[in-house]
Design goal:
alpha+beta, 8-stranded mixed sheet, 4-stranded antiparallel sheet
Length: 251
């Protein structure tokens, strides 16, 4: 599955950037100090997103950054899905890919938007340590019993594989799979993929608006993240600060 981060460059740099990179940049991805893979990043200008940057808190920021270093920093940072480089060469990384009409984007004169398409080998044999293959659902997953905050859980999935993220419950089949593992494995409550962006909207890790939910009574409340409760076996909004188990899945 492809990830599509967004990278912002100043307009005056567009022609030189396109020439220098020839629309393709080979980057090395390091995981816990070891070389894991080589990825191709193809750049495409997104005309629908101009002069905008996110209002959300960045997961990292670095000054005097070049476009290449900005993208490299995102690739090497757990849970980084997009980066924005402003006219003053300040690079900011975010855990979501923003849609053109996202209310979380604000005006920033002089910035242009580019998409970075990660090309990966579609063949994956699920040989990662601790991961298992579910034949009926064709998914590669790993159960983590050790309880962690949701930020630490997200980071752990990313460290295990570039495409590993928290399990996304987006269908009856995936919900039933999760509940079966929770009950049969006595796992307790589990964090799942999903982040609140407004009072009524949640997005997945690639910024897509989520439409499938199994809410408990009076949910969603005020939490930012999603949790499946071990008692009700239904979803609830959570602050993400309390430690729970989770399931990672390679997408």
């Amino acid at each position: 599955m492809s990830l599509i981060p967004l990278v912002l460059f100043p307009r005056k740099m567009e022609s030189s950037i396109l020439t220098q990179m020839s629309l393709c940049l080979i980057l090395f991805y390091f995981n816990t100090g070891a070389l894991c893979s080589v990825e191709n990043f193809h750049y495409k200008k997104i005309n629908e997103i101009l002069d905008k940057i996110p209002v959300d808190e960045a997961i990292f920021s670095s000054v005097n950054s070049s476009p290449i270093r900005c993208v490299q920093r995102c690739i090497r940072s757990p849970n980084c899905m997009s980066v924005f480089l402003s006219g003053d060469f300040l690079c900011r990384g975010y855990s979501v890919v923003y849609e053109k009409d996202s209310p979380n984007l604000t005006a920033k004169i002089g910035a242009s938007c580019y998409a970075v398409h990660v090309l990966e080998d579609p063949v994956f044999d699920c040989t990662l340590k601790g991961y298992a293959w579910h034949t009926e659902l064709s998914i590669c997953y790993k159960i983590h019993r050790q309880k962690k905050s949701i930020i630490d859980a997200i980071a752990l999935c990313s460290l295990e594989h570039l495409r590993s993220r928290l399990l996304l419950v987006d269908s009856d089949d995936m919900y039933n799979f999760l509940i079966d593992k929770m009950v049969s494995g006595h796992l307790g409550s589990l964090y799942v993929q999903g982040r609140r962006i407004s009072e009524t909207s949640f997005v997945d890790d690639v910024g897509k608006t989520m439409t499938y939910f199994r809410w408990g009574a009076d949910e969603p409340k005020t939490g930012t993240y999603l949790l499946v409760d071990v008692v009700t076996l239904l979803q609830e909004a959570s602050s993400g600060e309390t430690s729970y188990g989770h399931i990672c899945r390679v997408y």
